[in-house]
Amino acid sequence: MRIKKGDKVKVITGAYKGTIGEVKQAFPKEDKVIVEGVNMVKKHLKPTQANPDGGIIEKEAKIHVSNVMLYDEKAKAASRVSMQIKEDKEGNKVKVRVFKKSGKEVGGKK
């Protein structure tokens, strides 16, 4: 899975198609992610000592990773991602994620 917590993604299918949000949590074993503001569900809470009123809250549910694409903010487009091996400053080989459309590294800190 090439999508990690903190990445900007664009939903490419489903009821929230076209929505851009940040990944709040990733579940690599399940191939699912939780995206901010996407796949909102209502959860009914029983009254407890901590929350004596109970009530209904709205929260994000998991969405399959195949329904989202990484979003390149500089190119303003969603893009597929490839993995490349590059050398860092110390000469160590590291894997980096690269946008297929623009060729830029994901994160773009360099």
Write up what this structure looks like.
A hairpin with an 8-residue loop joins strand 1 and strand 2 (20-27). The protein contains no helices and ten strands. The chain is mainly β and 110 residues long. It has a domain at 8-78: Roll (SH3 type barrels), CATH 2.30.30. Helix content is 0%, strand content 47%. The radius of gyration is 18 Å and the shape is elongated. It has strands spanning 8-11, 20-27, 32-35, 40-45, 55-60, 63-64, 68-72, 77-79, 81-87, 93-99. The model has no long low-confidence stretch (mean pLDDT 92).
Give me the number of helical elements: 0
Shape: elongated
Mean pLDDT: 92
Number of strands: 10
CATH arch. level architecture of one domain = Roll
Helix amount: under 10%
* SSE ordering: EEEEEEEEEE
The biggest sheet amounts to: 6 strands, antiparallel
End-to-end separation: 23 Å
For the biggest β-sheet, the strand order reads: 6-3-2-1-7-8
The CATH topology of one domain: SH3 type barrels
Class derived from helix and strand content = mainly beta
Please specify the SSE layout and strand pairing.
Blueprint: E1 8-11, E2 20-27, E3 32-35, E4 40-45, E5 55-60, E6 63-64, E7 68-72, E8 77-79, E9 81-87, E10 93-99
Antiparallel strand pairs: 1-2, 1-7, 2-3, 3-6, 4-5, 7-8, 9-10
Subunit structure: Part of the 50S ribosomal subunit.
GO biological process, one term: translation
Pfam families: KOW, ribosomal_L24
